[in-house]
Design goal:
The complex is a heterodimer of chains A (478) and B (350). Chain A is mainly α and 478 residues long. In chain A, 69% of the residues lie in helices and 3% in strands. In chain A, a hairpin with a 5-residue loop joins β1 and β2. In chain A, α7 crosses α12 and α17 packs parallel to α18. Chain B is an all-alpha fold and 350 residues long. Chain B folds into two domains: 83 residues, no CATH class; 221 residues, Orthogonal Bundle (MetI-like fold), CATH 1.10.3720.10. Classes of the chains: A mainly alpha (478), B mainly alpha (350). Chains A and B meet through α1, α2, α8, α9 and α10 of A and α1, α2, α7, α8 and α13 of B.
Chain lengths: 478, 350
């Protein structure tokens, strides 16, 4: 087997792509410079009463920018499509493109369906009116699909933990040493300093990150909403006490908190489990109060709903906090055990995020509670929790959804930080933070182990930020 | 105003007490103490030996008593044995007379920060040198970050939706999406490694502690600054766009004031009130960045001391580090509150 080059048979495209990229960079600079000097497009009133939009340098610069941008996109697509067709014939790019085939198919299907039905899909459909939102959504869904298919072993070429002798720190495209029948014959993005495949680790890492970050953010939101709504709605002593607590946690330097919480010694004391008992109870409380406040006057419906929702949640909750041979080992029906290291990471990320959510929800609730429809509900004699959860909460969903997207990105960064300091997650874990940490030690000689996870993390967080921006823009429009 | 500052300071002191107590409890949990005993004594100590070591060194007392001693509101422990007297305020084993002459209170309030088990020196000495290094780093970070963030924000916000706005906003979103450990790794890869060949900078900042220069100090500064720039710039942009749609700007425009004068003389001062608060509240996150960048570039500052103290369970040093960082965070919050009131005439006069 020969080593793969980056682009293989597509090498003639490379100079074109380089030129297109340079032109794009130049056009952005020109576009900005022109917009500094000239005013916007001019309207000229004609004698017959019509108006003509005058073409000026700025419009021309914008046109040039659009053309070069399209050229770059077209060339990138050409790499992708030709890579899909040629596979390893098109070098590493082609091999990766073909390896990720399930992701591309899912992305195309998702976008085609969403764009054709976008008028019927509410806020989600409106996202496809904003280019920024679409790019962000595309990036996020790319990693989501990669994570899902990666977990199903459809994308990764090798076992992310397997060490192959002779592959230590090998450059991208090196043929696998001692490859047997059925093995993928190359290390597409090279080997790391323990001779593991960088590409497979990156793909598996996406799964790790997407397993923890959204769930941790969801829990943080449950905690923040359950505490923030009453604090904002009632005000007074409750608000003072809860705000003091929130500020207390916020004043704690995050990294110090992590270092204190996420150590094997603290895990041994069972502290993370006790924190989990408190923090994971909030979704239960939230769902219970949500249902009860709605169906309080219809007991039969109330009990059915409460049973349907709370019993599975309770079983899940007990399985989560209960672990055999640890400090909390009381519940017989334990479906799964969370390793102590993972639990403590999860708990501390929720713990750090919830005060910020609390502050946002509190502020929104304080703003909304002066509205007329809240006063109307109060006059009707609705209970406070009904007003909070069924009158106020649906009306603050816009800012909360936007913040949810941003916060997933922030949680991803936090998880990466933990991995970067080697805290909590097992050392061979393929998550991006740990991989960056492993790769940085030899960074001045070997770039390839550290760069792919770094770029992956950056693109995911960027996608989430752009998605949040698009959502904000579109939700402000109406 | 005086009452406001007084009340805020009171809350600040309570917060600091609570936070240090939490850190104290967490570092003094039994498994942590056991680890400390084993690293200080030897790793094959039996459980009884650990217990007696802890008892001999004053760790066996109740939590509140230990906290009070550390704070300096309770007299430090002493212990008589055949060799002499040992105690919190005594160094080593001394005679009874020397012990009587030593001060009985020694805690934070008396200015005694304790003794670092990791570095084998006084904590105050470590904090002083490490904090000096970090302060120098932070100074340059602020010098680079604040003006560029404000400039980007103002340029983007003065004409909403323009080419300048869109490209600068994209830039700020990109920087907020790049945490320090990603941008640091990319910078090191591109600008220092022998494979790319652009050997413009040094990959470590170890030499910068003695002799900081552009070559070895710029990358760490840039790495921290870049992550903060995006956020401050976006806040500045939001406040600038808000000001630019205000009534008085429209009036000035209709009077025929030039765009330049509107921005510089009318809009800028009002638009910079909100970013001031944001910059001040950015300090806790900068601290985060400092820890990452200092370990990435091997710059032995405050963040490095934190990592060392935490991974070796150096209780006194860890407490000192948390006291300093908590005080920094709370002080910046206080300054941002007072500054906001001071800068905003609408609140100041009413």
């Amino acid at each position: 087997m020969d080593p793969l080059t980056w682009t293989g048979a597509l090498a003639p495209l490379n100079p074109l792509f380089a030129i297109a990229l340079l032109l794009l960079a130049a056009m952005i600079v020109i576009w900005m410079a022109v917009s500094m000097v000239t005013a916007g497009t001019r309207q000229i009133a004609n004698l017959d009463g019509t108006v003509t939009l005058a073409g000026n340098p700025q419009a021309m610069a914008a046109l040039g920018l659009r053309i070069t941008f399209l050229a770059v996109v077209a060339l990138a697509l050409a790499y992708l499509v030709l890579g899909l067709l040629l596979g390893t014939g098109a070098g590493i790019v082609g091999a990766i493109a073909r390896q990720m085939l399930p992701t591309w198919v899912s992305l195309v299907v998702l976008f085609a369906l969403s764009i054709s039905f976008k008028r019927r899909l509410g806020l989600y459909g409106k996202l496809f009116d904003s280019p920024i939102g679409m790019i962000g959504f595309g990036l996020v869904m790319f990693w989501v699909f990669t994570g899902i298919y990666g977990a199903m072993d459809l994308i990764a070429t090798h076992d992310p933990l397997a060490q192959v002798s002779g592959m230590k720190n090998k450059v991208p495209g090196t043929p696998l040493a001692g490859a047997e029948e059925g093995d993928y014959a190359w290390y597409l993005l090279g080997g790391d300093n323990l001779a593991r495949d960088v590409f497979s680790r990156m793909v598996k890492g996406a799964g790790e990150v997407l397993k923890y970050a959204p769930l941790a953010t969801l829990f943080a939101f449950m905690v923040g909403i359950t505490l923030g709504l009453p604090a904002g709605y009632y005000g007074g002593r409750l608000d003072t006490a809860l705000s003091f607590l929130a500020n207390l946690i916020l004043a704690f330097p995050v990294i110090l908190l992590f270092y204190l919480l996420v150590t094997p010694e603290i895990v041994a004391t069972g502290l993370p489990q006790f924190m989990a008992v408190v923090l994971f109870a909030f979704p239960l409380v939230f769902c219970g109060v949500l249902i009860h406040s709605r169906f309080r006057t219809q007991p039969s419906k109330n009990y059915i709903w409460l049973a349907v929702v709370l019993v599975p949640l309770f079983l899940l909750y007990m399985s989560l906090i209960n672990a055999r041979g640890s400090k909390i080992d009381v519940w017989p029906l334990d479906f799964f055990d969370i390793p102590g290291g993972v639990l403590v990471v999860f708990v501390s990320v929720v713990f750090v995020n919830s005060p910020t959510v609390f502050r946002i929800v509190r502020g929104l609730a304080m703003d909304i509670k002066t509205r007329d429809y809240v006063a109307a509900a109060q006059t009707r004699g609705e209970r406070p929790w009904y007003i909070m959860l069924w009158e106020i909460l649906p009306n603050v969903r816009g800012p909360l959804i936007v913040d949810f997207c941003l916060r997933i990105g922030y949680t991803t960064i936090l998880l990466g930080t933990l991995g970067f300091f080697g805290l909590g997650l097992p050392p061979e874990s393929p998550d991006w933070g740990s991989t960056i940490n492993d790769g940085r030690k030899l960074l001045s000689i070997y770039l390839h182990p550290a760069l792919p996870p770094a770029v992956a993390l950056m693109s995911l967080v960027l996608g989430l930020n752009l998605l949040a921006d698009g959502l904000r823009e579109e939700s402000l429009r109406d | 105003m005086g009452l406001f500052i007084l009340r805020r300071s009171g809350v600040m002191i309570i917060t600091a007490l609570c936070l240090t107590f939490i850190v104290f409890v967490m570092t003094n949990l039994y498994p942590n103490l056991e680890k400390l005993a084993k690293t200080e004594g030897n790793f094959r100590m039996s459980d009884e030996a650990v217990a007696s070591w802890l008892d001999k060194n004053g760790y066996g007392q109740p939590m509140m008593v230990k906290y009070g001693q550390w704070l300096g509101v309770l007299p430090g422990w002493t212990r008589d044995s055949e060799q002499g007297v040992t105690g919190r305020c005594l160094s080593g084993t001394v005679t009874v007379e020397e012990a009587a002459a030593a001060p009985s209170y020694c805690g934070i309030l008396q200015g005694d920060w304790g003794y670092s088990t990791r570095f084998k020196t006084d904590v105050s000495e470590i904090i002083e040198t490490r904090l000096g290094n970090t302060a120098y780093l932070m100074m340059w970070v602020l010098i680079l970050m604040v003006p560029s963030a404000l400039l980007i924000g103002v340029l983007a916000g003065m004409r909403e939706g323009s080419a300048m706005d869109r490209s600068l906003s994209t830039f700020s979103i990109m920087t907020t999406a790049t945490p320090e450990y990603v941008s640091g790794v990319i910078f090191i890869a591109v600008f220092t490694s022998s494979t790319v060949g652009l050997k413009w900078f040094k990959g470590t900042a170890t030499a910068a502690m003695e002799d900081p220069n552009f070559e070895n100090f710029f990358l760490p500064v840039l790495t921290i600054a870049l992550y903060g720039v995006g956020y401050i710039a976006r806040m500045t942009r939001a406040s600038m766009t808000e000001v630019m749609t205000a009534q008085y700007i429209r009036t000035a425009r209709l009077k025929g004031v030039s765009f330049r004068n509107i921005v510089v003389k009318h809009a800028l001062r009002n638009a910079l009130i909100a970013p001031f608060t944001v910059i001040m509240l950015q300090f806790p996150w900068l601290l985060n960045g400092v820890v990452i960048v200092e370990s990435l570039f091997n710059y032995k500052g405050f963040g490095w001391a934190l990592v060392e103290a935490a991974s070796n369970n150096d209780i006194e040093l860890l407490l000192a580090v948390s006291v300093v960082s908590v005080v920094v965070v709370l002080l910046t919050q206080l300054i941002s509150d007072i500054g906001y009131v001071f800068l905003n005439p609408r609140i100041r006069i009413s």
